[in-house]
Amino acid sequence: MKIQYLLTSADTMGGTERAVLTQAALMAARHEVEVVSVFRTRARQFFAIPDGVRLRHLIDATNAAAPRPVAARSLGADDCVSLAALPSRYVEPAWEAVFNRLSDLELERLLRETDADIVVTPTPALMALAVQLVPSRVKTVHQEHRVSELRGISGEPLLRYAPALDALVALTEPTRTWFAETFGELAPHLATIPNAVPGGFRPGSTRVNPVVAMAGRMVPEKQIHHAIRAFGQLTDTFPEWTLRVYGEGPKLSELRNLVDELELNDNVHLLGNAPRMDEEWARASICLLTSRVEAFPLVLTEAKAAGLPCVAYDCPNGPAELIRDGVDGFLVALDDVDGLAAALARLMGDEELRNQFGTAALETLDELSPDRVGAAWESLFGEVAAQAALPGSADAKADRFARHLAGTSGGNVVLAAVPSHGTRRIASFSYKAHQVRIEALHPNLRRHGGQVCLVADHLSAADVIDRNLHLVLDVLEKSGIPYIYFNDGNLRHQVGVAEEYRQQVLDAVAERYADEAVYVAALNAGGGVMKTAMAGTLGAWNLLKAPSGIRVFQPVMTDNGTVRFAGVYGTTVSFWSDSEDGRDLENPAATTLGRILPKESLTPALLEVAGRDVSTAEPFTRTLVSSIDFPIDAVYTWVDGNDPAWNERRNKMFVANGLTPAAEANGSARYRDRDELRYSLRSIDMYAPWIRTVYLVTDRQTPAWLDTDHPRVKIVDHRDIFTDPDALPTFNSHAIESQLHHIDGLAEHFLYFNDDVFLGRPVTPATFFHANGLAKHFTSPTTVPMTPVAADDEFNMSAAKNNRALIAERFGRTLVNAFLHTPHPLRRSVLADLETEFADAATRTAHSPLRSHGDISIASSLHHYYAFLTGRSVPGAISCGFVNVGLREQQKRLTRLLSARPHDVFCLNDYHDGDVPADEQARVIHAFLTEYFPVASQFERGTERNNAARDSLRSV
Predict the structure, then answer these.
(1) How far apart are CA 671 and CA 64, in angstroms?
(2) pLDDT in tens, 341-383
(3) Cα distances (angstroms) measured from residue 568 to each of 431, 521, 762, 934
């Protein structure tokens, strides 16, 4: 069998490179093995190429300014430079920026004609290349070297192409489980195979040298500055000890400055790369790892092979797979620098403990021996080959990938849930068995993201937050444990309990939810999550002895698995203590009144929260200066462009103005109804329950699915708001927006939505308004050209230019920028003033039945500048995404929106000059929106949430 391994650069120092070369060496004993390095980046290899392994480079990039193919080509130097400057057709820059069109051409030559039986890839970018380029006879195997569920954008190729693989291999079981849950029946063959410890003689440590060693790339995720700060706490107590840091990278200069700043030059040594790291481990006595995420850290396996005790952050996922806490090392809560120092101090000050841990470290290495790991790979490759030999296997793989594409709108929408903090292994307790037992007890549970979740398609984010509060209060009140509800300004709830009740709280939660899918996260002093476990396992979890607080939650997921509410929606229980003089309550978590609360101010009181009376203190019942207590409405302008009656009215207007319905300036893109309104309202119901009333401004139209009798929904016809009936009918959104302040009953503060704008995650009123009533506005980097209005201007741009003229004339200021596609925070009084201040322009726009170059854009632009210059609006900050679904190359952004949910708001727009047919756009949008917003809102007639809302109103 010929096995071909791909590496981006085989000559660099890194864990992935080392692991692949080790694996290649294992396979070379019985197979023909070749390592293909896409780029040669240095004159000499950092790691030696194993005997029996052939190395081939494709691009010589040792001169970064003049890359060239290693093989003889007729391309000139200028051609190579030009090709290297072009982006790759197969690998997006956000995935891995090093690939380009020159590397594409060399990889096409190699992979399309490869004689390999199996191609193995170690990065998602290389995987994307392989599955797109290798012939169907070649088997593709991807070994994932990072925590895939936390990769972010670099992991997007996995979500897009993994079903096209023959096998997908994880280093740890949590990652393999995530793959299984993400892809379901469309997953390729899945396996878990750890990295092997390289064979041969390895020197052992005597553990007497006063040296702590760590190795890794000096990049942000390694958090080496944490190690330096932790070690800096110990130099006075252990002046003879040194910290040796091996590696290079972009953070080197910054770390040197930190060593200087802390005056640690005598104790902390930054030593660069070490060609024989095994010898450096043997010279040390303790291994340290401070990464924020590690899949299966080779540095720990190599340090343990030298007999070193290890101290590491308990980050996802690898350290807990390799370190037995309290047996051969210490696992420290992520980002707990003080905890690192304490763990190091225990080992530095106790030689007997170091020897005990070091001896234990050697006991676990059999599982990672070359023989065992090599046998696992042999078995996997054999299974893949056997499967490929079966009749119809190629068609089955192609059909699997086709179903994946069909379910994800051509691969642009990936049905994958957002990962959250998982659970770590618990010593002396079968955690998996407990999960299985809980699942068996409740039919409406499902495993997802490493947790057992309640499946519910009718709960909003706010509902889940409130449910989690009830989980806590039910326990505290039944157990008679006194508590104080702390308003902390967060979306989730917080209650405070005196630290003397800590163990009673833990015991009560464990007992009450022993048979429920309820989880508890332990919080450190900074409020960070240390570990998470099911409530029924707390008795076996020794790290819950003294947390500063816990977070209690029941994970909830939708049936389709694309929405999961986990720990961030839980209720925090903070364990407060008395100050030294006994006068104050000192709370580890912030509240709206601070962390230190005078006891004399804490007069008991009741407050209605989440539909029940909760115990609190009187100051927490007050309306604060920072509180937003004024009503906020939402206004939509909406049209159903598929309505024949509306189209007939519009066509008459076109003819009356000398136009045809197909005139480009009035293209159909602005009038298409693809049910976006339904999902935009779902986003409000899911993420902004504080919206008082939704006003839908229409032209004699109403969506059939909308519950028009819902008390929070008001239909407003154009005839109800236009002060001059002669301005109607109108098909000009600028004209309609100029009349919004005439809506009867509209609040002073409201958000103006286009129906293609959506809330992407929970937001608060403070996202859009200040407590003193000031509105916020969100400036776009898009600028308004400093040119006069022209006939070929887009209408939104000519309106912005007209706005600029008005602002310049009134205030002597020149506007430059447009605004983001967000819900626009507006004030009714500002709109009324604009109608008076700029009467001629406002009247002209209101009487323009079709978009005109003489329009002004009031709601989306002029309001913000005018309100800012009259002291009623200020710049704000918001995370906003934008996708032009009419452009095929932008549709891939939908994957990122769905899988990462990174934005507060996002807009799905399209232009009349796009390259995607309208019917395909509709399919893509529908697939995306149904996955992003699967919970039908209370505004949709006959839905579960709608019926519940009606029942609630009847009971009132």
Answers:
(1) 50
(2) 999 999 999 999 999 999 999 887 777 788 888 899 999 999 9
(3) 22, 10, 11, 20
Token duo for residue 56: 């081939």
- CA distances to 531, 535, 555 from 430, rounded to whole Å, are 16, 14, 20
The model carries a pTM of: 0.74
Task: Give me the numbers of helices (H) and strands (E) for the chain, helices first please.
Answer: 29, 40
Using an 8 Å Cβ cutoff, are 567 and 545 in contact? no
The CA distance from 884 to 412, in Å, is 13
Q: Are 134 and 160 within 8 A, CB to CB?
A: no
3-state secondary structure of 728: coil
User: What are the DSSP calls for 200-265, one per residue?
Assistant: S------S-S-EEEEE---SGGG-HHHHHHHHHTTTTT-TT-EEEEEB-STTHHHHHHHHHHTT-T
Give residue 202's identity as a one-letter amino acid code: R
Q: Are strands 905-909 and 757-759 parallel, antiparallel or unpaired?
A: antiparallel
DSSP 713: E
594: left (phi over 0), alpha (psi -120 to 50) or beta: left
Degrees, nearest 5: CA angle 613-614-618: 105
Pairing outcome for strands 779-783 and 817-819:
antiparallel
Report residue 478's pLDDT band, with 50, 70 and 90 as the boundaries. very high
The SS3 call for residue 16 is: helix
Quote the distance between the C-alpha of residue 748 and its chain's center: 35
Residue 143 · residue 120 · CB < 8 Å: yes
Strand-pairing partners, residue 748, are: none
DSSP 618: G
Q: How far apart are CA 629 and CA 500, in angstroms?
A: 36
